[in-house]
Amino acid sequence: MSRMVPPYGVFTVDAGLYISSFSRMAQEITGYSTSEAVGCRCLDLFCLAQKKQSCPIRHSLKTGQECETHGVEMITKAEKKIHCHVTAIPIRERGGRIVGAVEILRPISDPIKEGESPSQQLVEVFFGQEPLKTILERLPDMALSKAPVLILGENGTGKDLLARALHDLSSQRDGPWVRLDCGAFGERMLEVELFGCRPSPFHGIGEARSGRIQQAEGGTLFLRDVHLLPLPLQAKLLRFLQEGEIEPLGGHEPLRAEARIISSSSEDLRPLIREGRFREDLYFQLNVFQMEIPPLRSLREILPVLSDALIQRHSSTEHREVDRLSREALRLLMEYDFPGNYRELNNILRHAVILCKGETILPEHLPDGVRGSHRKVFSHPLKGENGRRMKEIEKELILAALARNNWNRKKTAEELGIDRTTLWRKMRKMGWGSKIRPT
Questions:
Q1: What would the mean pLDDT of 35-44 be, rounded to a whole number?
Q2: What distance in Å separates the CA atoms of residue 293 and residue 279, rounded to the nearest whole number?
Q3: Could you give the angle at the alpha carbon of 369 between the alpha carbons of 368 and 372, nearest 5°?
Q4: CATH number of the domain where residue 140 is located
Q5: Is 436 inside a domain boundary?
Q6: How far apart are CA 415 and CA 404, in angstroms?
Q7: Residue finishing a domain among 107, 137, 156
Q8: pLDDT tens column, 176-196
Q9: Helix residue spans in 244-381 (DSSP H)
């Protein structure tokens, strides 16, 4: 029999965090009736005292952004600790002012280990394998420091996972966890996202807005793909790292700010420094600690253990009874090159778990690319035949995937195991527009 889908509880709060509505499922999950909950502050009702500073609904009210957090600890009326997946969404008036928020609760059927976040558990599974144990052993010491950490590795190798684990293990784990993708915005918008802005007729800014550095006060700011940060913003980030000051766009006075910076890059920054595209002084500031993750294709020996752990996780979340790979399915995975690395393996196994009707994943449950239909497309060695450069091979891989998916970027990104933002950025670098095909 398939497992029952866990219930979702919903409640709303006003700007002061006072509960204004409380669904029937929220009553069942927390043990409080509507009459007991409405009119009370949610923080005082079922939030653990030591967790109040990292409350998703407070973060959503403060930033005006949707906040999703896995493994939030709550206390029921019966004083029982439960772990929930929490999504908080701000409520706005017609004029845009935030007047409250909605919180959606989903109990986690397999509670995390005491004192461990989901990212820590996944890090133990992945980075705890023999070739990567050095990374795991260094994590606690790095986490206890507030010094910047630079994480290097190809797309999909687990840089985001490692960064989150550093935050979850740190003394600032109850503070905000804020992430910024440096390749997702144009330069002006990226400046506002990172440093905030002040009202300025000259810049066409009508209202003040806090940046991600301010939002991460007392916590961690993760700068994803820091190699894509424009040079002018590199200078402003360097000032923050050296002096603890930021200058919002349109502002005239610097502001004090404090947040730990963890950054990642899928490119080696040293050639960028030589080309004048990345500041050497910023590199040294970001690189107090450096961690480099090897690609999954060089870690084939950990595939059986890693696959087993991911199958168990997806089997639980997808409410299936799958618990193993067949010998032939495992052989196909062992022969696959994984251009999308860990992220692609995760997607492949989720795909297989969803399609599998029994306990064992068979070859037909794996995506076409893994079974062999397109494996030649992904089987190029890094330097290619006749000494071709890796970038040329990457271009061929992307072009082939785009052609197979009729230039649908979403489907292409899923096949390659990369984000749509990453795919779009690579297409722009190669001179391909979103609708115009290369000639």
A1: 89
A2: 23
A3: 85
A4: 3.40.50.300
A5: no
A6: 10
A7: 107
A8: 999 999 998 889 899 999 998
A9: 269-274, 280-286, 303-317, 327-335, 341-355, 368-371, 375-378
